[in-house]
C-alpha cells in the first residue's frame, strides 16, 4: 500500500510537470503576443467545436502532434546513440527535480496521513541541486553529437554558463538553509506559516530579498532563458546546441526548457513565498488578525493550499515569460562576468550577513 | 534493502562498470561511468545515507564527470582500434583480475561488518545534522585542511588556464583569400 | 562510426586550445539579413580576422538600366534600398531632372520631402527594430514594426504598393496624393512618436542593451572618413555631415531640423543617431505638412512628363507625345551628372551619363552600404561573434543597395 501511494504521488508529480510545461508553451506564445501587441497563434481548431476550438488547442494538441510526427534524423557522421540519448538526458533531470518540492501539507485520507510531496527526502534542497547539476549532460552531449561546429560552440557556452550559475544559486540557497535551519523543503514551508508582528506572514522573501533575486536570476540562467539564452539563440547559432535536432527530440529539449521554468518557479515559491501556505489559513481554520477563528474543514484547507501552490507557481512562470520578452540578452563574456564577479560575491556576502543576523537575533524557527 | 530493488540495481551497476572498461568510444565510456556513479547514489539512499547520495551526484556525477566529458569532447580522440592488445596482455589482465577477486572475496567473507544483518541504525544516522556535528568537532582539522587544498586547486586551475595567445596565429591571412 | 574516424568533429589540428577556428557565417544565416558571408577566424571567442563576401544579391542593376528608357529605370531603383524605396526613386528622378534642367513644382517638392522623410523613418524603424530583436529585445522590435505598418499602409494608399512603389517620375510624381493624406501622415507620426517614447524606455536606458552596444566597434572620425562612410555611421563618430544640410536639394534648406551627431563612434552612438534622426524627420514632416501648397504635382513640360489621358485619347498631339515618351524615352541632353542625396544609410549618389537618346548610357549607384561593408571587417576585429550581430544590425547593410 505504501508503494502504491508513493507510486501515485510520483506519477502525479510527473504528470503535473509535463502538463505545466505543455501549458507553458501556450502561455509563452500568447504572453509574447500580449506583450507585443498582437494576437498570437489562434488558427488551429478541432472541427470548429467549442470548447476544443479555444486558442490553446493550437499549442496543447497541434504543436506536440506536429513535433512528434516530424521526420527524425541523425546528422551524418554523428554518434547515433548519443544523439538520441542527449534529449532524454536533458529532459529527465528537469522533470524529477520537482519531486522534492512539497505541494501541500500532510493530509489525512482514509485514516492514513499522506505527505503531499513525491519524495520525502530530508536533504530536499541538495536533491534539487543534484538534479540541476545532472541537467548539464544533455547540453554537453547534444552539441558534441551533432557534428556541427556551431552546435559545439553553443553547447560549450551553455555548459559553462550552467555550471557557473549553479554556484551562485547554491550559495544563495545556503543563506536560506541558514535562515530556516533545515535542508528539508517541507520543513521550510511549515516555518513560513508563522506570523511576524501578528499580521505579516513570515515568508522567505520578508527575510531574504537578495537571495530571492539571486535564485530567480540564477534559475533563469540555468534554464538558459533570455536574458541568458546566448547558448541557444542570438540568431547566430540558429538554435545553438540543439540545431541538429528535429521532431520528437527537439520537443524533448523544449519540454526540458519549460520544465526548468516550472522548476524554478516551484523552487522560488517554496523557499520565498510560503509554498502551499495561505496566509491566515491553517488546518485549525481561518485566523484573520483581530478576529475569531473560523473553522474550515481540513480537507478543504488542504485542497485550497494545493491550489494556492499552483497559483503561485503559475505566477512565477508568467513572471519569467514577462522578463523574457522584455529585456535583450547578455553577451557571453558579460554573462560569465555577471555570474562569477557579481552574483557569486553577492551571494557569499548574503551568507555572511545572514549568519551574522542569526548570531545576533536568533533563528526564525 | 528489498532484494527486488537490489538485484536489478546491481546488474545495472555492473553493466555500467563493464561499459567503462569495455567501450571503444571514450565518450560512451565516460557516460557509463556517470551511470555507475548515479546508481551508486541510489544505493546510498537505500542505505539511509541521503546526504552522501546527494553529494555524490552533485560533486561526482554532476561536476567531476562533466569535466571529464568536456575534456574528452574537446580533444581529438579516435576510438581504440580493437586489435591493439596482444593475447598475452589480455591473459595477464584476466589473471590479475581473478586474483583480486579472490583476495577481496576472502577478506569480505571472513569479516563481520558492523551494522550488517539486522542491527538497528543509531538515531539520526546519515542525516545532515549528525554528519555536520561529527565533521565540525572530531574531524575539524581534516575539514579545514581539505578546504585549503581545494582553494589551492582552484587557484592553480585559474593560473594554468591563463595562457598567452600565440602571435603566429594572429597574422595568418583570412580564409578565402588564396590565389 | 568507423573505427579510425576522429571523434571530435570538424577539428583537424594539433592543440585544440590554441588553434584558430575558421567559421563561416554564411549567406543563409538568421542574422545576415541581406545575404552576406563572413569568413571569420576565431581565437576562442574573439575574432582575429574577418573576410566579408558580398554580392549574393547582385542582379545587374546598372547594366539593366542601360537596356530601357530613363523612366523604365525607376522600378529598378525601388529595389535598391528596399527599406526606403521612395528615397531611391526621388533621388534618381532629381538627378535626371537636373540633367534636363527641369524644376518640379512646389507642391511636388513638399510631397517629395514628406514622403522621403517617411521612408527614412520606415528604414530606421526596420533597422533598429530588427537590431533590437536580434539582441533579444523582441518586443521592442515588434513595436517598431507596428509603427512601420502604418507607414506602409500609408505608402500603399498613396502609391499603390508597400515596398516596390515606383512613385517618382522625372518631372514630378506618378499621380497626386489621395484625399486625407495629411491626416494619415499625422496619424502615422503620432504613432511613431509613441513608439519612440516606449522604445526609449525599453532600450536606451536598459543596462543590458547598453552593455551590448556601448564600446563595441568604435570608429574614429579619421578612420570613418578614410573608409568613405557616410550617413549615421559617419555621424556617430562625430562628423556632422548630412547631404541635406551640406548641399540642400528638394527644398531641405527651408526646413528647420538638426543633424544628430554622436561622440564615441561606437554601436550605441549609431543606434542613438538613428533614433534621434527619426525625431528630426518627424519635425521636418510637421513643418512640411503645415506649408503644403496646392497646385499641380508634375511640371508642365511635354518633353518630360506624360500628357493627361484625356489628351492622349482626345488629341493627336497627346497621342504622339505619349507614344514618343514611352517608346523612345525622355530625351535627356548629352552630358553627365553626379547627384547625391541623403539616403537612410548615408549618401546615396547617382552618376548618370546620357548620350542624348532616351536610354541611359550609364547609370552608376554610389551605395552607402557598400562602403560600410568595406569597413565592417575592421569594425568587428577583436570583438566576439556575438558582437557581429550587434554591429551588423547597426550597419544596416541592405543587400539590394550594396550588391545592386
- In oligomeric terms, what are we looking at? heterotrimer
- How would you sum up the global shape of chain C? globular
Q: What is the 3D form of chain A?
A: globular
- Which structural class fits the helix and strand makeup of chain A? mainly alpha
Average the pLDDT over all residues of chain C and give the rounded result: 87
**Termini gap of chain A:** 34 Å
- Strand residue content of chain A: under 5%
> How many strand elements of chain C?
8
Give me the CATH fold name of chain C: Cytochrome-c3 Hydrogenase, chain B
Characterize the main sheet of chain C. 3 strands, antiparallel
Helix content of chain A: 55-70%
Radius of gyration of chain C: 23 Å
Most extensive chain-chain interface: A-C, 34 and 36 residues
The CATH superfamily of chain C turns out to be: Cytochrome-c3 Hydrogenase, chain B
Spans of at least 5 consecutive residues with low confidence of chain A: none
Counted by DSSP, the helix tally of chain C is 16
Within the largest sheet of chain A, what's the order of strands?
1-2
CATH class division of chain C = Mainly Alpha
Query: Strand-and-helix sequence of chain C, N→C?
Result: EEEHHHHHEEHHHHHHHHEEEHHH
Structural class of chain C: mainly alpha
Description:
- The complex is a heterotrimer of chains A (365), B (179) and C (404).
- With 365 residues, chain A is mainly α.
- In chain A, the strands form three sheets. In chain A, strands 1-2 form a two-stranded antiparallel sheet.
- In chain A, strand 3 and strand 4 form a beta hairpin.
- Chain B is mainly α.
- Among the domains of chain B are: 77 residues, NADH-ubiquinone/plastoquinone oxidoreductase chain 6, subunit NuoJ (Four Helix Bundle (Hemerythrin (Met), subunit A)), CATH 1.20.120; 37 residues.
- Helix content of chain B is 70%, strand content 0%.
- In chain B, helix 1 packs antiparallel against helix 2 and helix 2 runs antiparallel to helix 3.
- The C terminus of chain B is likely disordered.
- By secondary structure, chain C is mainly α.
- In chain C, 49% of the residues lie in helices and 12% in strands.
- Chain C has a three-stranded antiparallel beta sheet with strand order 1-2-3. A three-stranded antiparallel beta sheet of chain C has the order 6-7-8. A two-stranded antiparallel ribbon of chain C has the order 4-5.
- In chain C, strand 2 and strand 3 form a beta hairpin.
- In chain C, helix 4 packs antiparallel against helix 11 and helix 5 packs antiparallel against helix 6.
- Chain C is globular.
- Chains in contact: A-B, A-C, B-C.
- The interface between A and C is medium-sized, with 34 and 36 residues.
